[in-house]
Amino acid sequence: MIPCSLVTTCRNEMCSFPYWKANMQAQTRFPDEIVIVDAFSNDGTWEAITNWAKEDSRITAIQEGGNAAHGRNFAIQNAKYDHIISTDMGVRLADCFCEELMHPFEEDSEMQLVIGNTCIDPESVKTLVAKTEWYIQKGGFESLTPEGSIGGNRSSAYLKKIWQECGGLPEDLTFYADDSTLFRQYRQAGYKYAFAPKAMTYWGRTGILSKYWREAFVYGRGDGEAAIKMSRSFKYYLQGRIPAWLETVLNASRYMQKQFHLSAVWNSLKAGDIGVMFMMPVFAFGIGWNQSKGYHVGYANGREHCQACRARLLESKQNIAYDKRFSK
Predict the structure, then answer these.
(1) N or C: which end of the chain has fewer CB within 10 A?
(2) d(CA 19, CA 324)
């Protein structure tokens, strides 16, 4: 078998660490090394990780400050092996997660990147809000085909060489979109990749509506800083054709129209979740609204602080070409 290093970062994950550790120990293939970079936790996480490292020589525990992108880059720099598996500590992994991500490399010596899968954890779908997202996301699945998934830190494996060639994860972003940028670079560069649908991560969801909207805002901010995933309405805004408030309304309306689909309504009706029907438009409009607000904040911040990240992608350069409003 090809040796591999699994990398992850954490800060104050004591609530999830014991379950994640047990999840890793249940893997059908345990990584040859696990590198965990802790951003100076103060809730007992660091002590728990170091105790595990004392018990198992395959565990490397490191403390390092900085944002999540810097932490993951630091973990990869300190990894022993050329094949890197990337995931997050706060998710539940399929038992075959590591085995499935490494299988394409062992089948094809020219493989450079493997994209795993992710979905909402059904065990966390208990409230009206969580059920609303579940139905909108068609059972929680985010990526079912290689064409529909760019890939990300949560479920992927790649050669350290291509990570180095692309400059690692961009560290000039505030917090989010570092993996969206790097994995777009991988795809833009034409590296050979495979899709591993069984390498599933299950993403636990909250039951509080305001937290979904906050999440949409920070994700939108990250995308705006990197100048990726730019909507048509935002391009109109950059050209000075519409004001910011109208762009936000248009983006929210478009998101609601896209997400409030008949299959979601029908499936919620079949399950007897009548309240979901009324929550769907509120939920979807709010997600679109907050994503747009975050994008505006992120785009403005990125113009000053994230030029290195924006220079990486052809997509970002093309999007910035619309920027007539601020070019003077």
Answers:
(1) C
(2) 50
Task: Give the homologous superfamily in CATH for domain 4-203.
Answer: Spore Coat Polysaccharide Biosynthesis Protein SpsA; Chain A (3.90.550.10)
Q: How many Cα atoms within 13 Å fall on the side-chain side of residue 40?
A: 4
Every domain of the chain and the residues it spans = 4-203, 209-320
Binned average pLDDT, 10 residues per bin, the chain of 328 residues: 97 95 97 97 96 97 95 98 96 97 97 94 92 83 59 96 97 94 95 94 92 96 96 93 96 87 82 88 95 97 94 92 68
- Give me the long-range contacts of 100-103 (CB less than 8 A, separation at least 24): 100/196, 100/198, 100/199, 101/155, 101/156, 101/157, 101/196, 101/199, 102/1, 102/2, 102/4, 102/29, 102/157, 103/196
275: tokens are 């309240």
Which of 289, 301, 303 is closest to 251 using CA atoms? 289
Query: Contact 222/306 with Cβ under 8 angstroms?
Result: no
Over residues 174-217, the pLDDT tens digits come to 989 999 999 999 999 999 999 999 999 998 998 899 999 999 99
